[in-house]
Amino acid sequence: MAAYPMRRERLDTALLLLPASLFLLVWFVAPLSRLLSLAFVSDNGVFDNFTVLLSSSVYLQVLGNTLMLAALVTVITLLLAWPVAYVLTRLKGPLFVLTLYGVLFPLWISVLVRTFSWMLLLERGGPVNRLLMAAGIVDHPLALLFNETGVLIGMVHVLLPYAILPLYSAMNRIDTRLLMASDGLGAGVMDTFRRVYLPLCLPGLFGGGTFVLLLSLGFFITPALLGGANSMTLSMLISSFVTDRLAWSLAAAGSMVLLVIVLLLLGLTMRLLPMEKGMFAK
Amino acid sequence: MSGQTRQQRKSERQLSGTPIAWRWAAQVGANLVLAFLVLPILAVIPTSFNQASFISLPPTSWSLRWYGNFFADPEWRSSLWVSLQVAVMATAAALALGLPAALGLQRAGALLRPILTGLFLAPMIVPVIISAVAIYRTALDVGLNGTRIGMALSHAALALPFVVINIGVSLRHVDRRWQQAAAGLGAGSWTVFRSITLPNIIPGLVGGGVFAFITSFDEVVVAVFMAGYGAKTLPVKIWESIRLEFTPVVAVAASFMILLAALLFALARLIDARRRQVAGKAAASITTETITDQGVPA
Amino acid sequence: MTGNGLPLRFRGATKHYGTQIALHPIDLDVEAGEFLTLLGPSGSGKTTLLNLIAGYLAPSAGQLFIGDREVTNLPARQRNIGMVFQNYALFPHMTVAENVGYGLAVRRRPKEEIKRRVDAALAMVELAGYGDRAIQQLSGGQQQRVALARALVIEPDVLLMDEPLGALDRQLRRNVQLELRRRHEERRRTTLYVTHDQEEALILSDRVAVMRAGRIEQIGPVTELYRNPVNSFVASFIGESNLLPARLIAQDGIQMRIEVAALRHTLTLPVTAAPMKMGLADMPLQLLLRPEHLVLDDAGPLAARVEEAVYLGELTALRLRLESGADLWLRRLTDRPITRGMELRVNWQPEHVRLVPQS
């Protein structure tokens, strides 16, 4: 067996992988490293930027805000995702396709446009408030914009499909014969749900929840447009460091913090859950 | 339904399983959530037809005034043009880099593959604000900020993961044995690629290209930093206009973006249908593929 | 695990989907403690019938009684049935013990009782000590036994099995079949078994119901189906068969004369060789000669040439070409070597010849 053909194949493979790797190294990895290295640049010592960030009550509040918001958004989207995912498993034919497209299409629209649409809907004189008043639910327009509520609504809207799809995928994989078996063994509906269906949905719930959580942590556009003065998120902070103050080191430190949180969460998830084959398929 | 006995009607329903009430409640809940998902997007389009200078929904009176305004304004026109140019460049780059990368990944050894997969997917995992700030910093250092090339390169980096994933999925359906048979019959590796592999990954290529295009066109965060004065894309102009001058022309721009998204979405679904024909897969597996199709919002 | 289980009566079981009929009205009676197999090709309706009895499908018409209780409109969980599925349907997120004890847990039995009964059930299927294992760690044969234990531990009135051995390899399958039969003879629980494998049906059953296209073609003890099939479908489904077109020439109360073109022969058969006495002249008929009932006989009436000789170890199967051009299979104990091209003479054992309607 000649070693020559093998070497030739390895060379071919390397050549194939080279352009994209080089490109990403130059235009993604290098910039990222450069930025993160700036986090350690300061007049007052290597970790000064971090100290500034993590000891300031203002910045800590931003961090806390971001985490709280992300957690809240995750819980709400998972709750809302549930009926849609379930219905998707039961539909067939054109109704199924229509519903699936209803979930997929919003993902193709820019987050800016989707956020903008909520600005139109949630303002004081806007359709939502008018509907609520007309239905008699409230007697004066609610402040739904430029506060936490608006941000919440906007983010849930943008992130819902990311919760629905993994949950649907997991639910779809549940063998109906398991439910039939549970039924035949005498289990009532609640028992079958609690003991068989729910545990088998957990991977999907977990996957979708993590996905949504990770995305919400980095959200910028939606909180920026829909939020008020006191609902700043970490990404808005980073952006403001750069555009308003040219404080690159602080921006870098903030980025580092965000990245670490994201990677920690990601690592935790991958440990607790074998990644769905589709997610990071080649 | 007449003529059926009560028992016959009952037999049409399943005897065991989830109670009807639950299923009905789930359907109602799902419809509400779906409405929540889809309708707000449609709020944009009526707003663009408003007669007056302020935003109102529904419009006080209907007119095409702001559409005229959009096309008359050189800044809006140029931002549309810039967006198109950047998207085309970014798509071309992403495809040119992504195709060999996907091919190489498939052949890579067990050691290299996870590392490279991590590299190729990194732009998808890193929060976009961080990517934006990092790339902007480097662009400043090399003078590529505010240029369309710089913008296109940045978008190419963001779109690359989706191209690689899309082509990768298509590649998995190319049976090794076809390639081996071709090689056995005397075809060289380029011929094998051209005649066997390539025709079968067209859906992945085109699908990846379509998604790369919309990713670039929709992209906001990186664009806001990289735009400068020379590369203002449509989303950047919208972003500025929302905060500076809030007239219905913004809704016009947003409507165009929705229209483009709808067209490309339809195209992608057609490609999917073709791909299913080619691969002969069952409908349920769409989900797996489409999860990897979609990506992080900008 | 004691008791006989209950008798089962299904009157007029029917199932259709819109205009498509999956089951024509069927009456089925299963005695307490009986092992009845529903045997047939795919699409015959055997699984549909099983699902109706289990309660996973509602019948379009008909009434089902388990013991004295009418269960027609009861959901599966209230019928006290034990079901073993083709792919076992073991709960992947539970251990072996949790799987087996599931039926007891949802019946809210006390923990000690559950543990006791689960241990007994596992011992009975020879998986004692496996309780804490994950089911993914078990082999196919072991999973099959867990599925069985899970169905039996709740002491069902009827045990239902839907091709449960399909996933096992041949040797294991044979062992499990014999084990199931042995267990059944010990416990005598009313059992309804679905399969397409006639050998399996032969080994396991007290009675077999051969099904085709939503009807029961014939039901009875296996020996009866073998010896006196009611039509050519049953004849070919149970055991090996040679079926040759036959024409009825004459018939009285005792005998029938039939002409069989392929044999170039006219036979006289007692009327008991056919499943019925009336109406034979009006239907296409076939002569049934089972390969094991043909003999090589130098003085025999048929001249034949060996087209194929298949060595099966103890037996040899021969495909013989008759003068008429028709082929017959013959099975005999292997003694002298027989090869292609040999010219032989063949006879049949007259007491085993049957006349069956073509179906």
Furnish the topology, listing elements before pairings.
The complex is a heterotrimer of chains A (282), B (298) and C (359).
Chain A: H1 3-38, H2 48-55, H3 57-90, H4 93-104, H5 111-122, H6 127-134, H7 148-173, H8 176-184, H9 189-217, H10 221-226, H11 234-243, H12 248-272
Chain B: H1 6-12, H2 20-47, H3 65-72, H4 74-107, H5 112-125, H6 128-142, H7 148-172, H8 176-184, H9 189-218, H10 221-226, H11 234-244, H12 248-279, H13 286-293
Chain C: E1 8-17, E2 20-30, E3 35-39, H1 46-54, E4 61-66, E5 69-70, E6 81-84, H2 96-100, H3 102-106, H4 111-124, H5 140-152, E7 158-162, H6 170-187, E8 191-195, H7 198-204, E9 207-212, E10 215-221, H8 222-227, H9 232-237, E11 242-251, E12 255-260, E13 265-270, E14 285-289, E15 294-296, E16 302-312, E17 315-322, E18 327-333, E19 343-348, E20 354-357
Parallel strand pairs in C: 3-8, 3-9, 6-7, 7-8
Antiparallel strand pairs in C: 1-2, 1-4, 4-5, 9-10, 11-12, 11-14, 12-13, 14-20, 15-19, 16-17, 16-19, 17-18
Helix pairs in contact in C: 4-5
Keywords:
heterotrimer, A: 282 residues, mainly alpha, globular, disordered C terminus, C: 6-stranded mixed sheet, 20 strands, 35% strand
Biggest interface pair, residues each? A-B, 99 and 109 residues
- Which stretches of chain B are low in confidence, meaning pLDDT under 50 for 5 or more residues running? 281-298
Cα distance, first to last residue of chain A? 30 Å
What is the strand tally of chain B?
0
The helix fraction of chain B, in percent, is over 70%
Considering DSSP H and I runs of 4 or more, what fraction of the residues of chain A is helical? over 70%
The quaternary structure here is heterotrimer
Average pLDDT reading of chain A: 87
Description:
The complex is a heterotrimer of chains A (282), B (298) and C (359). Helices cover 76% and strands 0% of the residues of chain A. Chain A contains 12 helices and no strands. By secondary structure, chain B is mostly helical. Chain C has a 6-stranded mixed beta sheet, with helices on both faces. A 5-stranded antiparallel beta sheet of chain C has the order 13-12-11-14-20. A 5-stranded antiparallel beta sheet of chain C has the order 15-19-16-17-18, with no helix packed on it. The radius of gyration of chain C is 24 Å and the shape is globular. Chains in contact: A-B, A-C, B-C. Chains A and B meet through helix 1, helix 3, helix 4, helix 5 and helix 7 of A and helix 2, helix 4, helix 5, helix 6 and helix 7 of B.
